[in-house]
Amino acid sequence: MDRVLQLMIQGWYYSIPLLTFSVFSVACCIERVLFWWKITHRQEEVVQQALSQYRRNPRAAQYLLEQNADLPIARIFLAGLELNEASPEDFKLALETALAAEVPLLKRFNTVFDTVITVAPFLGLLGTVTGIIQILSSIQLGDIGGTDTQGVGRGIAEALYSTAFGLIVAIPTLLISNVFRSLYLRQLSKIQEYGGMLELLHRQRQEMQAQQLSQYSYTQSSPSGSSTLPPYSSLEPS
């Protein structure tokens, strides 16, 4: 261990950046794990309750989503529900705009992971090159007995340790980054699926309200008829 620490101190020009990258990777990984844990454990229940309540009372669904506004899917739904009497086209546009605004949050730190994955092996390679230079500078051609064997050993150790250190930082970061990328793609697919379901319910509600408005207008124009149109009509059959 002391030997490794000594080599890292001697190779500070690659070991310090690699240590910095490893700390950043761990910190970003912890943040992403907490973020995706929250989504995977709460989103499904919130969405199902919101869609169910929207069939009966959109205001109740909106209140539920406001209580869970820390979820990206809730903020996307609210962008559409907060529009008053929006047409299906405007409703869809609001959802798509909100989704575009949430994408950077879902892909957060991907650039950091990609940078670490790309740069860490090159920093390890830098240590390898400097180690080889040290080896060559310790070898005296034509005078084997005068060769600095201790310098050769240090050069070989530096070359091998720096390569291993760079790979130790890059490989786990690559695996973790792929996991987060797969979660992002899965989440994007779910948002599009749930958004489509909400658009369908909104379109059905608009059509039902248009029919009731037409019936209301007809009864109002009839001499003996009178009716009132409820502000929200349930989509569930009575």
Question: How would you concisely characterize the structure shown here?
Answer:
This protein is an all-alpha fold. The protein has seven helices and no strands.
Q: Distance N terminus to C terminus?
A: 75 Å
Which secondary-structure class do the elements indicate? mainly alpha
Mean pLDDT: 82
Say how many strands there are.
Answer: 0
Number of helical segments? 7
Largest sheet: none
- The domain count comes to 1
- Rg over CA atoms, rounded to whole Å, is 31 Å
Low-pLDDT stretches are none
> Which outline best applies?
rod-shaped
Element pattern in H and E: HHHHHHH
Fraction in beta strands? under 5%
Could you estimate the helical fraction of the residues in percent?
Answer: over 70%
List the helices and strands and how they pair.
Layout: H1 2-10, H2 12-56, H3 58-67, H4 72-81, H5 88-106, H6 110-138, H7 149-221
Helix pairs in contact: 1-2, 2-3, 2-6, 2-7, 3-4, 4-5, 5-7, 6-7
What does this molecule look like?
- The chain has seven helices and no strands.
- The protein has helices at residues 2-10, 12-56, 58-67, 72-81, 88-106, 110-138, 149-221.
- The model has no long low-confidence stretch (mean pLDDT 82).
- It has one domain.
- Helix 2 (12-56) packs antiparallel against helix 6 (110-138) and helix 3 packs antiparallel against helix 4 (72-81).
- It is 82% helix and 0% strand.
- It starts with a helix and ends in a 17-residue tail after the last helix.
- With 238 residues, the protein is an all-alpha fold.
